Amino acid sequence: MPNPEAPSSTLTFVILSILATAALVTSKSTIEPCSYSDSCNAMLGYTLYTDLKVSEVASLFQVDPIALLLANAIDISYPDVENHILPSQLFLKIPISCACVDGIRKSVSTHYKTHPSDTLSFIADSIYSGLVSSDQLREANSISDSSVLDVGMSLTVPLPCTCFNGTDNGLPAVYLSYVVRDVDTLAGIAGSYSTTITDLMNVNAMGSTTIAVGDILAVPLPACASSFPRYASDFGLIVPNGSYAITASHCVQCSCGPGNLNLYCMPSTLAVSCSSMQCQNSNLMVGNLTMLQSSGGCNVTSCTYGGFVNGSIVTGLSTSLQPRCAGTQLFPPLIAPPNTVKRGSMFAPAPSPLSSAGSLSPTSSVIPSTGSFPRSTTTAGGPTGSPVTAACTALNPGIASLTMVVLFMCGKLMATMFSSI
Ligand SMILES: *[C@@H]1O[C@H](CO)[C@@H](O)[C@H](O)[C@H]1NC(C)=O
Ligand SMILES: *[C@@H]1O[C@H](CO)[C@@H](O)[C@H](O)[C@H]1NC(C)=O
Ligand SMILES: *[C@@H]1O[C@H](CO)[C@@H](O)[C@H](O)[C@H]1NC(C)=O
Ligand SMILES: *[C@@H]1O[C@H](CO)[C@@H](O)[C@H](O)[C@H]1NC(C)=O
Ligand SMILES: *[C@@H]1O[C@H](CO)[C@@H](O)[C@H](O)[C@H]1NC(C)=O
């Protein structure tokens, strides 16, 4: 005698599995196809799930704590800043290296060591704040039974990133992987990051302005590009407007903005031993410049940083004639290491971590605001248009139609189920 319940529960199971798949498919992430193996620089938008030390956040992503602080314009001259406890819900930009794996851009250099009572969904949704999904963790680590996670297991955490050749509309840009939250709108995100809805839609190959919680958008941040030679270990260094980067084994610190988008590099004040930073045949050091008012304009001689090659700091002396002698070099304002998350900014995308307790320290010892400006500029103009973006446009509709197929299948199955009841 057939059990009338059996087919229906099997069917329910099938439907639930398909619905689960549909939910997965609908949480979109922008995919950038790639064909060469070079890594590029990208950012992850990360929200702290609990209070964490700077060093703990850095080790979650296996990044340099100093680089992490500077990417968020946090003053590194604070005593014991790496042990500073950052507040839960703080939003940070994590600078990462974006690789090319199996034909798409992703970061695969992050590993997580499991703790007792960790579950894949806790690791994905809380510890990595939605930047990875349980299924991606399961797949990347060939986990068949996710109910048993061995303690101390080292999990590869694949993280979404894009570079789009370091340009957006032909201008230098760094891409931030941003996890959409329930309060977000596309207009809100565009406003927070000084971009436009149109640009976000183009970059992410979106057909409409609809975004869903958990979607991961690539948000272009205007940046200052470097022009170091390909053989330099920091080739491709690119610094978002309003922030800093550290390079050359902590010897050189570069900033971007606020006045212009020319990368400005100078010796860092970290106590490390560094190779010479003096320009040949000159008494100028990296970051120094001299200005000479002449009849033709302002004759500017500057000693600039040219990359880190074989453990040595490359310097270059350049002379240019500017229309007029400019004023002081401006630096992005530094903030104190945050202690609190500003109410209201808590769930809103913040371009930089804001701290109600933090005071601005423009005259920090880290960033002396001495030295005056105009640099001979190598225009870091990128290529116009991005074939990669175009290729991506072709990808996303594919994902969308897959969703449609799954939903259609669900509909059909439900119809079948109802008719069988
Ligand atoms: C860079 O940042 C500064 C300060 O936030 C802002 O005034 C300026 O418009 C930004 N530049 C670009 C190109 O976004
Ligand atoms: C050159 O740069 C160094 C390090 O930034 C600074 O200490 C020094 O005062 C500068 N010299 C001149 C002449 O600007
Ligand atoms: C600018 O100054 C440098 C050295 O200070 C000199 O060699 C060069 O000829 C000057 N250029 C102009 C256009 O005055
Ligand atoms: C770096 O050092 C290696 C070995 O010392 C040398 O073969 C190579 O040419 C150097 N590269 C550059 C760019 O100087
Ligand atoms: C990327 O940019 C470089 C110059 O910045 C350019 O030579 C190259 O063709 C660009 N590649 C693509 C795929 O846009």
From TrEMBL:
Residues 1-27 form the signal peptide. Residues 352-384 are annotated as: Disordered. Residues 110-157, 176-219 form the LysM domain. Keywords: Signal. SMART domains: LysM. Pfam families: LysM (PF01476), LysM2_CERK1_LYK3_4_5 (PF23472). Residues 366-375 have a biased composition (Polar residues). Gene3D superfamilies: LysM domain. InterPro entries: LysM (IPR018392), LysM2_CERK1_LYK3_4_5 (IPR056562), LysM_dom_sf (IPR036779). Residues 353-365 have a biased composition (Low complexity). This is LysM domain-containing protein.
